[in-house]
Amino acid sequence: MGRLEGKVALVTGASRGIGEAIARRFAAEGAAVAVTARTAREGDHPLPGSIAATVAAIADDGGRAVAVAADLADPADRARLVEEVEAALGPVDVLVNNAAVTYFEPVERFDEGHYRLMFEVQVRAPFELAQRVLPGMRERGGGWILNISSGAARHPQGPPYQARVMRGGTVYGMCKAALERFTTGLAAEVHDAGVAVNVLSPSGLVRTPGVVHHGLDRNVPEELLEPVACMVEAALALCTGDPAELTGRIAYARPLLDELGVEVGR
After folding, report:
1. In a domain, 266, yes or no
2. 36, β-bridge pairs
3. Quick one: how far is CA 215 from the chain centroid?
4. Which residue pairs from 212-216 have beta carbons closer than 8 angstroms and sit at least 24 positions apart in sequence?
5. In a domain, 2, yes or no
6. How far apart are CA 7 and CA 2, in angstroms?
7. Residues 72, 99: contact at Cβ < 8 Å?
8. Please, what are the averages of pLDDT over each run of 10 residues along the chain (266 residues)?
9. Is the pTM of the predicted complex or chain greater than 0.85?
């Protein structure tokens, strides 16, 4: 039996990149997985990948998955998402908040619409989805919530400041810092219910389609790149660990795997 046998997992932002990889890994461990994103089918987005393709890949591997298209910036979509998932698969045991919309613009020129959209998807949506799955988790006596963050949540160190810090990532860092504080606060609130709440960041740069699209991997040394498998295995560890102990973490993938003795190739 897999480590998630009999569990239902909901993974947001699962049309490509880290979200897709986590969804496929969780399905391989026996979870029935609901994947969601705005990109329902190939061609709906300039980048390759879709939730239909993710579900097809899981099915090809012998797993069970459903796709629920949703725009997490839309309150109505956030409201129906968990309902549709639970109608199809049953109560959610594992929630992975991975979806992100990101714009890199200097603060003095940052577009108000972009600002609101980033906070809706990366902060408000994880908050509301947690609100919707927590009553069932509390009733059943356990569950796991994992929020995907970034090293951008850390405060810039300087002066002098590194050139990468000044590339318009302040609002992105604000979103991730808010997500991390939400994570630790919620972990304390629901610890008595047997629900683990953690946040996970890559310890290097993961070359996802979005990273490549934004050119964030340009001139990054190979030793600072991290395989997506590190994030996937760390996510699995955090979503199968003992909620009494492995909770309230602001974790970085490689150090967490080293701590837990999990081997992932470099």
Report:
1. no
2. 12
3. 21
4. 213/46, 213/47, 214/102, 214/104
5. no
6. 10
7. yes
8. 96 96 98 96 81 98 98 96 98 98 94 98 98 98 98 91 75 97 98 98 79 68 80 97 98 96 83
9. yes
How many distinct structural domains can be found in the chain? 1
Q: From the centroid of its chain, how far is CA 122?
A: 9
Is 115 labeled as catalytic in the residue annotation?
no
CA distance linking residue 117 with residue 190, whole number of Å: 28
Residue 157: φ, ψ to 5°: -105, 130
- The answer to the question of residue 265 being in a domain is no
Q: Which residue in 115, 161, 172, 252 is the catalytic one?
A: 172
Q: Which residues of 138-170 are buried (b: 16+ CB within 10 A; e: fewer)?
A: eeeeebbbbbbbbebbeeeeeeeeeeebeebbb
User: Residue 75: is the preceding peptide bond cis (ω within 30°)?
Assistant: no
Range of the domain at 237: 8-260
CATH number (domain holding residue 83): 3.40.50.720
Classify residue 207 as exposed, middle or buried by CB count within 10 Å of its CB (0-12, 13-18, 19+).
Answer: middle
